[in-house]
Write a structure and sequence with these properties.
2 domains, 317 residues, Methane Monooxygenase Hydroxylase, Chain G, domain 1, 56% helix, alpha+beta
Length: 317
């Protein structure tokens, strides 16, 4: 789907590129949602765009994610988005600026997530723009708010797990796996956020920005720095949570070992007595005692009870 935001603050949607009448002087923004690689060549020709940044999305160098030429600015980065199995999946976003038009390429999943998590500001129908700069900065702000929302979501899940940990005395491997999932999601957010911050820092230094844009980008960078601090807090909380659960698992294992020790000691003494009198030597005077059997039975019972009394005084149970 293609969504065009005109300068008269009207939004129109198109299903194919052929339907579009390209009038640069009347357009602020063009959004390509769920674009395919086969469409890129047609898009490049119709809108006269340099799409070489699409082939560099896997490169680590920041120069591959921020490309500025005399007539075009290209940004590309990844945003984490929740999949069905509670893991984040990285989705690509491309933003190109040419002929005073903001071209945005993104997936429908990210489009939906941005709309759901930032409904109070991400509403083009009720938001009016006078320049493409305003629309571009608005998009940057929405992405920053999206980072804040998903970090807050991870923080909420960590707090819920912390509360569950405080109330629970038994833990399973699933709890540690869940911590690993949260850590993985937090890691993806940090990597993506760091990449986005570096892009904004380069954008801030660009000669193409006005004073207003410079200040607004600086504010977004400051907001992202605060979000980055919360990400670090999440890692610290996860470390504490992991240590807490491991400590409780060790205590639970110690209790199990204590029970096994008590049972072993209580059984070993009667077993020793039975073993001695089960040897059937000829010269065993106890075998001729009239009360030998009840005496041994009492000895077996006492040898079982005395260790229990001892461990009870030691508060092992």
């Amino acid at each position: 789907m293609i969504e065009i935001y005109f300068k008269n603050n009207i939004i129109k949607k198109y299903k194919s590129i052929d339907e579009i009448e390209y009038l640069p002087k009347k357009i602020f923004s063009i959004r390509f949602i769920d674009f395919t690689d086969s469409n890129l060549e047609l898009i490049s020709i119709k809108f006269n765009l340099d799409l070489t940044s699409f082939a560099k999305k896997k490169d680590l160098e920041i120069s591959s994610h921020y490309i500025e030429s005399t007539d075009q600015l290209s940004l590309n980065f990844k945003i984490p988005n929740y999949s069905s199995n509670n893991f984040f999946m990285e989705k690509d976003i491309y933003i190109l600026i040419k002929n005073d038009i903001v071209f945005t390429f993104l997936s429908s999943e990210i489009e939906e997530s941005l709309n759901q998590l930032t409904q109070f500001i991400y509403n083009f129908e009720n938001t009016k723009f006078n320049t493409y700069h305003q629309l571009f900065i608005f998009q940057i702000g929405v992405i920053s708010d999206y980072y804040a929302d998903i970090v807050e979501l991870i923080s909420k899940k960590i707090k819920e797990l912390f509360l569950k940990t405080l109330k629970s005395k038994q833990f399973k491997e699933n709890d540690l796996d869940y911590i690993a999932e949260l850590r993985y999601n937090n890691l993806l957010i940090r990597e993506s956020l760091s990449e986005f911050q570096r892009i904004l820092l380069l954008l801030k230094k660009s000669d193409k920005n006005g004073k207003d844009t410079f200040g607004e980008i600086s504010e977004e960078i400051d907001d992202l720095s605060v979000i980055a601090d919360y990400l670090q807090y999440n890692f610290n909380r996860l470390d504490d949570l992991n240590g807490n659960i491991n400590s409780k698992i060790e205590l639970e294992q110690n209790n199990i070992f204590k029970i096994l020790t008590i049972i072993t000691v209580c059984i070993s003494l009667p077993t020793l007595i039975v073993g001695i009198y089960g040897m059937n030597f000829k010269n065993m005077p106890e075998l001729k005692w009239a009360f030998g059997y009840p005496i041994i039975v009492i000895a077996l019972i006492l040898s079982f009870i005395f260790p229990l009394i001892y461990f009870k005084r030691k508060k092992w149970f």
